[in-house]
Amino acid sequence: MIEVRNLKKKFGDHTVLESIDFQVSKGEVVCLVGASGSGKTTLLRCLNLLEMPDEGSITIGAKTLKFGGGSVRRNDIKELRRFSGMVFQSFNLFPHKTVMENIIEAPIIVQSRPKAVAIEEGKILLSKVGMLEHQDKYPDALSGGQQQRAAIARALMMKPEVMLFDEPTSALDPQLVREVLKVIEGLAKEGQTMVIVTHEMNFARRVSSKALFMDKGFIVESGKAAEVLTNPKEASTREFLALLDDD
Amino acid sequence: MIDWFSRIRWEHLYDAELARNSLPFLLEGLKITLFIAAFSMFFALVLGVLLGIARMSKYAILRLPARIYISFMRGTPLLVFIFILYYGLPVVGVQFSSAVVAGIVGISLNFAAYNAEVVRSAVMSVPRGQWEAATSLQMSYIQSLRRIVLPQATRIALPPTFNIFMDIVKGTSLASVITVQELLYSARLISGRTYDSMTMYITAALIYWIVCIVIGHFQNRLEVRYSRYLNRH
To answer: Is A4 within a domain?
Structure first.
């Protein structure tokens, strides 16, 4: 489903990603963990091409894109993006649109779906994330957890092959974290392929089939989530997990 | 020491009857003022939005001309620009069909530069995450701009844009120096005939003020409408 090969990314002189290789199969849930600055968010954003990699290649679904040989064509970027949906740390709902307007906007103007159809599909997804009763509210009237659940529905509306989550609960008050994690867990049970950047270790152990531990732009350790996040082999992974346990 | 104060002739401060009698004549001038103002606001706004977007473009071929244009218009007095259009251009064989048209063109082109800066700052104040969300939903640059960013930028741009609108209304008075018989010109005509400059110019000032109050009222209504989605009022 996803294949990343020899991916490199620099910001100026600073190398953020050093030859990243990994694969995600259909139905797999992969967690990206690591300290801040380790490159995990950049890696996720590269998958959606919100950041443009400098070298390497990304395959998602049926589309492969190579980087490093001149500028990437706009149509190729669009095509690769078709296969993934993104959920942001800060939700990024459109504040001037209601929940329903938020989630039907792109299906209507990008995918040219009829409005009535989009609304019907929207209702199904909103009830799935527990937001149907709030469909006519503006984001400003919602809690962070509600906004994030709406944002998940918005990304799902595009029917992506892969869902990408960038620290989906990091901006939430502690008591709101669970309602969002539950929605993501539900998607995992349905077999939705997902890549999740998270600091919620218990959640990661529970929901993911694979974990990638990143440090200084490298994937230092990868494997079954339960193993990497419970009995890591690498010293840096152990150190990182020990720091989290101190909480 | 307060000699000058005691010499003020208060009885000449305001001749209400003269004001009342000259009102119909002044209102004829106001029509021209509003005519010039309305067209200038429209053109300045449209051109300003286009310029502002060009100014933010990643393409230097759009960005640089916009930048130079804005710099020139902001850096030169409107009156000088109007003189160039009305007195300068005929020298090279270009003549406007009327002074009113020259006024509208001058005011529009000049204030478009200010509008462009308002548009640019408003668009830049929309959080990056809004662009990213739109992009991740496969919207194109134009779709993101039109459907997501500009509606939010509009709310932010409303107060400064209305400042410009009021400046435009007041700026139309500069057209009086190129013989356009608008509000100020009309007031000056009567003032020259009656020698009561105080009454006539105060009356003109009050009329400008009332127009701007009405514009301010529209601003308030639009602000409420564009802030509807915010959970604070």
So the answer is: no
Under 8 Å between Cβ of B52 and B63 = no
> Out of A84, A138, A158, whose CB is closest to B229?
A138
Nearest Cα to Cα of residue B118 among B223, B169, B170, B44: B44
B46: its two tokens? 């449209």
Residue A159 in contact with partner chain B when CB distance is under 8 A = no
pLDDT digits (tens, 9 = 90+) for A150-184: 999 999 999 999 999 999 999 999 999 999 999 99
A28: containing domain? 10-83+160-247
Residue B135 carries which side chain, given as an amino acid letter? T
Task: Mark yes or no for CB contact A92/B135 under 8 Å.
Answer: no
The structure's pTM equals: 0.86
Closest CA to B79 of B68, B88, B70: B88
- Residue B232 pLDDT greater than 60, yes or no: no
pLDDT tens for each residue of B119-144:
999 999 999 999 999 999 999 999 99
Question: Which of A76, A81, A88, A96 should be substituted to probe chain B, the one whose Cβ sees the most B Cβ atoms within 10 Å?
Answer: A96
**Distance separating alpha carbons of residues B72 and B112, to the nearest angstrom:** 12
Using the predicted structure, report yes or no on whether residue B233 has a pLDDT greater than 50. Answer: no
Q: What is the DSSP string of B90-121?
A: GGGT---S-HHHHHHHHHHHHHHHHHHHHHHH
CB contact under 8 A, B137 and A110: yes
Q: Between A95, A140, A154, which is nearest B152 by CB?
A: A95
Q: By the CB < 8 Å criterion, does A96 face chain B?
A: yes
Q: Rounded CA gap, B47 and B45, in Å?
A: 6
A90 located within any domain = no
The model's pLDDT over A22-80, given as tens digits with 9 standing for 90+, comes to 999 999 999 999 988 899 999 999 999 999 999 999 999 888 999 988 888 888 999 99
* Residues spanned by the domain of B113: 13-226
ipTM of the complex: 0.92
